[in-house]
Amino acid sequence: MALTREQMAMRVAQELRDGFYINLGIGIPTLVANYVPQGMDVMLQSENGLLGMGAYPTEQEVDADMINAGKETVTARTGAAIFSSAESFAMIRGGHVDLTVLGAFEVDQQGNLASWMIPGKLIKGMGGAMDLVAGAKNIICTMTHANKQGESKLLQHCSLPLTGVNCINKIVTDLALLEVKEGAFHLLERAPGVSASEIQAKTAGMLICPDDVPEMVFS
């Protein structure tokens, strides 16, 4: 069974490490803030100028002025700092972000990312994605394995304009956890109830499957 958006965020959260500075992109990545493992100390950074982002607020905690890059209301943890977007991007471009979690339209087997433009659709701009893929030390992408037409989003070569080249390390889809290395997708885990053969059938790029692929575990 395919993972929900929340389950995808939960699996990404298992990749966090104590002491990390982490940027969460718009969409599914923002949900990761709700699933930081208990007892782990990380600082979540938003490109609009917040370091120390917390989970989504309850109805009583909502502050309309406290928002993330997707203009969703958020909370701030103890020790948080608020600053200009210029300072936020100085952190990103300076290589001070340990991990970035981004959404995508396409990823290919070389780790190239297309996340900002679909030809024929009105797009306001790339946003901060180009800076994030260039400045972060590690990048995880999270997205559905296929588009609404059932076409694979894990390709031999991206067909859409690129955001970054050779930049994606791991991918969490609604079907699988994969690593991108040596010019191929490597299947590490599969969603509960999803077979490796189904993942293979929905992956257009080269996919390396071990003989025994473990199911994801959600504690």
UniProtKB/TrEMBL annotation:
Transferase listed as a keyword: yes
UniProt keyword terms in alphabetical order: Transferase
Transferase among keywords: yes
InterPro entries: 3-oxoacid_CoA-transf_B (IPR012791), CoA_trans_fam_I (IPR004165), CoA_transf_AS (IPR004164), NagB/RpiA_transferase-like (IPR037171)
Coiled-coil annotated spans: none
Top-level taxonomic group: Bacteria
Annotated family: Belongs to the 3-oxoacid CoA-transferase subunit B family.
Protein's name in the database: 3-oxoacid CoA-transferase subunit B
